[in-house]
Amino acid sequence: MSERKFNSTNTLNEFFLEERCTLNKVLKIIGKRWVSEVLVLIKQDVSRFSNLKECLDGISDNVLSSVLNELVKSKLIGKEIFNQVPLKVEYHITPSGLALTNVLHQLCDWGKEHIAYETRMKPTFARKDGKD
Amino acid sequence: MSERKFNSTNTLNEFFLEERCTLNKVLKIIGKRWVSEVLVLIKQDVSRFSNLKECLDGISDNVLSSVLNELVKSKLIGKEIFNQVPLKVEYHITPSGLALTNVLHQLCDWGKEHIAYETRMKPTFARKDGKD
DNA sequence: CTGTATCCGTTAGGATACTG
DNA sequence: CAGTATCCTAACGGATACAG
Per-residue pLDDT tens for A105-117? Predict the structure, then answer.
């Protein structure tokens, strides 16, 4: 705190921080293990707690619950409680969440192109571009 | 394993899994704390270990090192070693990595629109859409 | 200068049990 | 059915020390 660096790197840092700040928040939200999956499921109209649990096979109630809460808190999904017996709750995606899944889909798309083959291949990697 | 669910959820599950698989890999890579930031920095031609360290202020050598390794392993950045004294190493972004930052930027963009105000606001949130 | 190895504290993921 | 509370463990981020 007492020795902040004001070198030339600082300029870059500033520019980079602006991007970092928000990006970090986003990644903090959807970087968690089950979050993106739950979001996608809800987008696909899997709106009940138990349905989600089935789809996610072995997820604990605990974890699913906290993930859902996080998503609700972040306004990516909405929660609708039907106060009846048996208790019924439905989750639905928000426009905000829908927009996110859209970007996520691009991310997925990128992954399919760039890391699909990366599982076991260790080719002789030599630089091909003419840097310097 | 012995009691796979073949209910209606299974259909959704199948579709969702295809997306999950790759998306998870991607998020696994860039969801780590410093990864996205390092990637952005390198995109901005901060190519030396020490420069990166300065930009990231308090990051440990250890962490930076492992992050760089991950990025190299994932082919998001390339590593060029100049075997001289003092030892010099340069990192540069790959086309693959560049494409990723592009998507990341959209993610950031999304964040700016949707979670900028979310820090402290707790408005009375009631459903507006006419979902039954 | 550019890293790796080791150790350690924190945190997130998860199992189980219990409540509305 | 839908969740919360508690506890446990594994994984991750990070500091320090050391090596090429």
Answer: 899 889 988 876 5
